[in-house]
């Protein structure tokens, strides 16, 4: 039974690999929703599979959490994600009642294609505007998780640089 942030992140990483392999081009990103020490739901990125720009791993996991719990919100839950969540997923976590997000690889660990490249980071905005609602903790197994993605120094072909 996973009991620490590291355990849950390891599980999320294993789920990403089991579902999508280790090729960064297949976006092996996974998320797990945990409430009171128990897994509620999990998900992997399905944007390409579902032709759905919103099917990020975190959204897939939150939808599954709603279905599993029969409630709109998983109040007080922790969301584990192998990659720093984007603005959409961070906001969705707030609406879903998630009180804590723990992520693996952060934007400094991966290729710039994964994050908006402007001076304003959505995450900074959210941590500032919603700091009473949501705690963000990054860098859990950062190197192990980052190994699943394109790295800052990788020469990624333009056609593979989809930020989804
Ligand atoms: Zn996202």
Model description:
The chain is an alpha/beta fold and 164 residues long. It has a single domain, classed as Cytidine Deaminase, domain 2. The protein has six helices and five strands. Strand 3, helix 4 and strand 4 form a beta-alpha-beta unit. It is globular. The mean pLDDT is 92. The site of zinc ion has 6 residues, from helix 4. GO terms for molecular function: catalytic activity.
Count of distinct structural domains: 1
Percent of residues in helical segments? Answer: 25-40%
- Name the average pLDDT: 92
Q: What is the rounded distance between the termini?
A: 31 Å
| Broad structural category | alpha/beta
Largest sheet: 5 strands, mixed
Pattern of helices and strands: HEEHHEHEHEH
Q: Strand fraction band?
A: 15-25%
SSE topology sketch:
Elements lengths: L4 H16 L9 E6 L2 E7 L2 H4 L6 H13 L8 E6 L3 H9 L4 E6 L16 H8 L5 E3 L4 H5 L18
């Amino acid at each position: 039974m996973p009991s620490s942030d590291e355990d849950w992140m390891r599980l999320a990483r294993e789920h990403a690999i089991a579902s999508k392999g280790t090729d960064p081009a297949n976006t092996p990103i996974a998320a797990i929703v945990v409430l009171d020490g128990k897994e509620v739901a999990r998900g992997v990125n399905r944007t390409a599979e579902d032709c759905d720009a919103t099917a990020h791993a975190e959204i897939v996991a939150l939808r599954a959490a709603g279905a599993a719990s029969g409630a709109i919100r998983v109040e007080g839950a922790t969301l584990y994600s192998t990659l720093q969540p984007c603005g959409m997923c961070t906001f969705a976590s707030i609406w879903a009642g998630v009180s804590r997000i723990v992520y693996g690889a952060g934007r400094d660990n991966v290729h710039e294609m994964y994050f908006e490249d402007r001076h304003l980071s959505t995450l900074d905005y959210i941590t500032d505007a919603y700091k009473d609602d949501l705690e963000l903790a990054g860098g859990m197994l950062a190197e192990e998780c980052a190994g699943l993605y394109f790295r800052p120094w990788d020469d990624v072909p333009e056609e593979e640089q989809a930020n989804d």
